[in-house]
Design brief:
Blueprint (H helix, E strand, L loop, with lengths): L2 H13 L2 E2 H10 L2 H4 L4 H13 L3 E3 L14 E4 L1 H16 L5 H10 L5 H22 L16 H26 L36
Antiparallel strand pairs: 1-3, 2-3
């Protein structure tokens, strides 16, 4: 799974309609250019590609509010919403996702109902435990890595990583079950995108030809 696909769909969906520069600005606001492959070129490519796939609708160009050249505005389609929510569900349950995909999914989890998010995270915990059990068939953590030579440190790293992620996931589940955050159907959602004209304190300032596309 590509994190950029999930992130771009999320940004467009939150805006309702957005042009490429707005999407890029939001992703930089989220810091996604630091922890994912959300670079300007990949953002504009993803927008055009998903429009071709029917996940986004590319509207007739509209004048830029800043007085610049016209820009194409994108709106998520029904198929795009289905794709987006499917990506969130998959990323929340799959233990072997890359960190950027996991991070994107956590940022989007509130677009699901609270009970479903909890169920998916519990499934994630189950899969972590299942994966840990597979590792410990050949490696016993209580004996330490030394009996397997320095290669044992690899499995030692795997076990520690799995344990830390399981603990964190269980803490997240507890917070959600305790009423933290606003999930789908519960009222006004948290606004995670920049308003039109709002200054982005985390913008890179790097120019890209697609900024005016």
């Amino acid at each position: 799974m590509s994190a950029i696909r999930l992130l771009v769909l999320a940004a467009v969906r939150q805006h309702g309609r957005a042009h490429g520069y707005q999407v890029r600005n939001d992703l930089e606001y989220w810091g996604a250019h630091e922890w994912s492959n959300a670079k300007p070129g990949s953002i504009y490519h993803a927008l055009k590609q998903m429009a071709k796939q029917g996940l986004l609708h590319a509207h007739e160009t509209a004048p830029s509010t800043a007085g610049g050249p016209p820009r194409t505005e994108y709106e998520i389609t029904e198929a795009g919403t289905e794709e987006y929510l499917g990506l969130v569900r998959e990323a929340l349950t799959s233990y072997d996702q890359k960190m950027d995909v996991k991070s994107a999914a956590i940022g989007c989890m509130v677009d699901l109902p609270r009970a479903e998010a909890v169920a998916l995270l519990k499934e994630r915990t189950r899969r972590i435990e299942e994966w840990r059990s597979a590792v410990t068939e050949n490696y016993l953590p209580e004996e330490g890595p030394e009996p397997l030579g320095h290669i044992g440190e690899i499995m030692n790293l795997w076990i520690h990583t799995a344990d830390a992620e399981a603990e964190w996931t269980q803490g997240l589940i507890a917070r959600i079950e305790g009423g933290a955050y606003t999930f789908a159907g519960e009222g006004e959602p948290f606004v995670g995108v920049l308003a039109t004209g709002e200054e982005n304190p985390y913008a890179t300032g790097e120019r890209h030809p697609g900024d005016t596309a």
